[in-house]
Amino acid sequence: MRPGRFRGLLLPIFLMFLWGVTGPARAAADLLGVAIHIERSGSGFEFSGRKHDVWISEYGLDLAQWVSPQATLYLEAGYANAAITNDPAGAGRSPSGYYGRLGARYRLPLTAHLGMGFRVVVGYHRLEDASAGSAEILRWWSYAVAWGPRLGFGPAAIEVGAVYRGAGGDQAMTGGSPATRDLRYTFRIDPYADLVFAVNPGGTVAIHVEGGARRSLGLVFGFRFESP
């Protein structure tokens, strides 16, 4: 993993985010959000140079705070489990554990219906399968930057764009034959689409889809309200 490549993208997005926070359109009252997040994804990870598909299911809770009408800070955390295809080292195992992500979203309005969406996210996973005196432990950090046009009409909005993503960590095997292998998802650009529906004042249902090297489908059921 080469985090320096990711950090080079952070400065322009961070400056745009600060502009949204400190600009003249700052919200008079902060908004808070809570959501249930369900996602299934499949990615081609490299384990010490050998590629295996890793399928991950996530079930979690998202917490968000609007710091301006355009800018949002959010935290995602929950339970995750994984299945690795064609991996003799972890055959018959299904490691599970937790994940967490910190992110920031910024939406730049261009017209009454058209805007641009930007998102930067840093995440961590730790999954383990322990049985018969041995264990498989997966640990990795992930990084992503996404951007794309957003079109909204009435209660619905769609955003389509590109996400630049990478990850790195390790797979540790303990017990009779202990070993550690590097775990890597090479930085690359994949397409994504978000479809969001407002279902009542403050309520939303969102569908997130990614293609390319990382295939995923996610559902988010959220509610937004004013902080006390």
User: What sort of overall outline do the alpha carbons produce when their principal axes are compared?
Assistant: elongated
Unreliable sequence segments: 24-29
Report Rg: 19 Å
Q: In which range does the helix fraction lie? A: under 10%
SSE layout and pairing:
Elements: H1 3-22, E1 31-47, E2 50-66, E3 71-84, E4 96-109, E5 114-131, E6 134-153, E7 156-174, E8 179-200, E9 203-210, E10 214-226
Antiparallel strand pairs: 1-2, 1-8, 1-10, 2-3, 3-4, 4-5, 5-6, 6-7, 7-8, 8-9, 9-10
Would you give an account of this structure?
- It is a single chain.
- Strands 1, 2, 3, 4, 5, 6, 7, 8, 9 and 10 form a ten-stranded antiparallel sheet that branches.
- About 25% of the residues are buried.
- The protein has one helix at about 5-20, and strands at about 30-45, 50-65, 70-85, 95-110, 115-130, 135-155, 155-175, 180-200, 205-210, 215-225.
- It has about 230 residues and is mainly beta.
- Helices cover about 10% and strands about 70% of the residues.
- The chain has a domain at about 5-100 and about 120-145 and about 170-190.
